[in-house]
């Protein structure tokens, strides 16, 4: 049985094509189609229902010590009102999940987890908590909307006071009013554009969504589905759990070294990472030379030598080029390295390029 | 012959000695924005119910199966540069024309096909 987000009826009313994703019925696209939705976010603004994401609260006198043990990024010194991205590792150095950690209060943190991993995360965290700390899973009570694109601030400003809008990336304001509804608003997202994520009680979500669409319409705001969410994050060079991260892939292989503080005193997975040393394979961006699209699970070759495998791929709606992410041997990871992808028995030439594939618009 | 339909959402229509093949409106709707076509070559032999081309949407790649066993007589090369023509008008944007056809896949008339997709959807 699939769960529905509080916005399910709105999606259906807007012509959303509903699919199952991580146990939820969510729109993969609306009648505009993925390309138009994608371009709306790059050039104007798009609105996503991401209520499937998990919200886990860690609270108590020893909350920080526990957070520091669970995550490989350093949360020491993070002020209230700030958020940080971090992988959460297993003992082998693989990734249990990648989450955003919000510091809500002195002794309270919120973790925003991937829907598909949330139950796994809850069990994992429960098994590793120590001392004076409690965890609660509030995912079913909270709805989340992502307003993304260069015009997102302008649109948000019509429904909330300017001083309540978080001014910097990875900051948030709490208990602020958006269209009269109490929200937590963070300047975060998964598109590579200026954007905000709004958390609210499930029962308030319809009102916020309707108001945003109403005031955003003159600015070209449209609803966007999971399809555009995936092409946007890919174009932005952002890894996705289950593709570029897994229980078997280390964050160093996934190119997440900036979020792994090896000099931090002790966290789960640190010893394994140290033991493994420099990775042998690494995540790269690929561009297809000529025609064709490389999707996930295509083997990559230089001559007869297999050098890696693709993990995600699509046509970039912005550049119209076929782009992909892959894990390749470090020796084949330099920008400009040419190789071939085996796409259903045909060899397509590809080249290693820099990520993000598209630069952020002004 | 009026337009016939396959269970795998191709359409076929006889035009003189040739059989014109495309994908249905339901298929393009399900695929979403089409961004690339892999087309066969003129002269290629095709087999009923087996793939002869594939279509890439933003989301995924899908095979296009041949309604008949036969040979490719013509290929719509406009689709190489403008695959979105299929989204715009799937019954005008034909993909290939077949000749020397023999065996056919299971084909349905329009009413039967509409009932079939109703059931599938």
CATH class of the domain at 3-53 and 140-235 in chain A: Alpha Beta
Structural class of chain A comes to alpha+beta
Strand order in space, largest sheet of chain B? 5-8-9-3-2-1-10
Low-confidence stretches of chain A: none
Q: How would you explain this protein's 3D organization?
A:
- The complex is a heterodimer of chains A (362) and B (121).
- With 362 residues, chain A is of the alpha+beta class.
- Among the domains of chain A are: 3-53 and 140-235, Probable tRNA modification gtpase trme, domain 1 (Gyrase A, domain 2, 2-Layer Sandwich); 54-123, Aminomethyltransferase beta-barrel domains (Alpha-Beta Plaits).
- Chain A is built from eight helices and 20 strands.
- In chain A, the strands form four sheets. Chain A has a six-stranded mixed β-sheet with strand order 11-12-13-10-4-14.
- In chain A, strand 19 (338-343) and strand 20 (346-353) form a beta hairpin.
- In chain A, helix 2 packs across helix 7 (226-235).
- The longest helix of chain A is centred in the middle third of the chain and has 12 residues, at 205-216.
- Chain A is globular, with a radius of gyration of 20 Å.
- Chain A starts with a strand and ends in a 9-residue tail after the last strand.
- The mean pLDDT of chain A is 97.
- In chain B, the strands form two sheets. In chain B, strands 5-8-9-3-2-1-10 form a seven-stranded antiparallel β-sheet.
- Chain B has 121 residues and is α+β, with helices and mostly antiparallel strands.
- Chain B has a single domain (4-120), classed as RNA polymerase II/Efflux pump adaptor protein, barrel-sandwich hybrid domain (OB fold (Dihydrolipoamide Acetyltransferase, E2P)), CATH 2.40.50.100.
- The relative contact order of chain B is 0.26.
- In chain B, strand 1 (4-6) and strand 2 (10-15) form a beta hairpin.
- Chain B has helices at residues 25-31, 78-81, 85-88, 110-120; strands at 4-6, 10-15, 18-23, 34-38, 45-46, 51-57, 61-65, 70-75, 96-99, 107-108.
- The longest helix of chain B has 11 residues, at 110-120.
- The interface between A and B is medium-sized, with 17 and 13 residues.
């Amino acid at each position: 049985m699939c769960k529905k987000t509080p916005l399910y009826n709105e999606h259906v009313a807007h012509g959303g094509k509903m699919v199952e994703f991580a146990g939820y019925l969510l729109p993969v696209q609306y009648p505009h189609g993925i390309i138009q939705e994608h371009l709306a976010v790059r050039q104007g603004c798009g609105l996503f229902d991401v209520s499937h994401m998990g919200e886990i609260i860690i609270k108590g006198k020893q909350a920080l010590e526990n957070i520091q043990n669970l995550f490989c990024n350093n949360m020491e010194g993070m002020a209230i009102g700030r958020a940080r991205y971090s992988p959460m590792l297993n003992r082998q150095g693989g990734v249990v999940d990648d989450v955003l950690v919000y510091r809500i209060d002195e002794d309270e943190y919120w973790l925003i987890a991937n829907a598909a991993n949330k139950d796994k995360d809850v069990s994992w965290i429960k098994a590793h908590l120590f001392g004076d700390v409690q965890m609660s899973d509030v995912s079913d009570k909270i709805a989340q909307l992502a307003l993304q694109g260069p015009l997102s601030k302008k649109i948000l400003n019509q429904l909330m006071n300017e001083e309540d809008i978080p001014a910097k990336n990875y900051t948030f304001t709490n208990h602020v009013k958006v269209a009269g509804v109490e929200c937590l608003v963070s300047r975060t997202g998964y598109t590579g554009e200026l954007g905000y994520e709004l958390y609210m009680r499930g029962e308030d979500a319809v009102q916020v969504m309707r108001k945003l669409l109403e005031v955003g319409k003159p600015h070209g705001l449209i609803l966007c589905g999971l399809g555009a969410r995936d092409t946007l994050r890919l174009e932005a060079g952002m890894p996705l759990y289950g593709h570029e991260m897994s229980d078997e892939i280390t964050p160093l292989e996934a190119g997440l070294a900036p979020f792994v503080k090896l000099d931090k005193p002790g966290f789960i997975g640190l010893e394994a990472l140290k033991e493994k040393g420099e990775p042998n394979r690494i995540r790269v961006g690929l561009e297809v030379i000529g025609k064709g699209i490389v999707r996930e699970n295509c083997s990559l070759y230089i001559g007869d030598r297999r050098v890696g495998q693709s993990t995600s791929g699509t046509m970039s709606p912005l550049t119209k080029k076929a782009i992909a992410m892959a894990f390749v041997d470090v020796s084949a990871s330099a920008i400009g390295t040419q190789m071939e992808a085996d796409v259903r028995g045909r060899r397509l030439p590809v080249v290693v390029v820099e990520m993000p594939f598209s630069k952020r618009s002004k | 012959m009026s337009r016939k339909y396959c269970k795998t959402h191709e359409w076929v229509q006889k035009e003189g000695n040739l059989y014109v093949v495309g994908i249905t409106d339901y298929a393009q709707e399900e695929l979403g924005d089409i961004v690339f076509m892999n087309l066969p070559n003129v002269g290629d032999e095709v087999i009923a119910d087996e793939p002869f081309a594939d279509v890439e949407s933003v989301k995924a790649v899908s095979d296009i199966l041949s309604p008949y066993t036969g040979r490719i007589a013509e290929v719509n090369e406009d689709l190489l540069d403008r695959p979105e023509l299929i989204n715009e008008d799937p019954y005008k944007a034909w993909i290939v024309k077949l000749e020397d056809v023999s065996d056919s896949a299971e084909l349905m008339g329009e009413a039967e096909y509409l009932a079939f997709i109703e059931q599938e959807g």
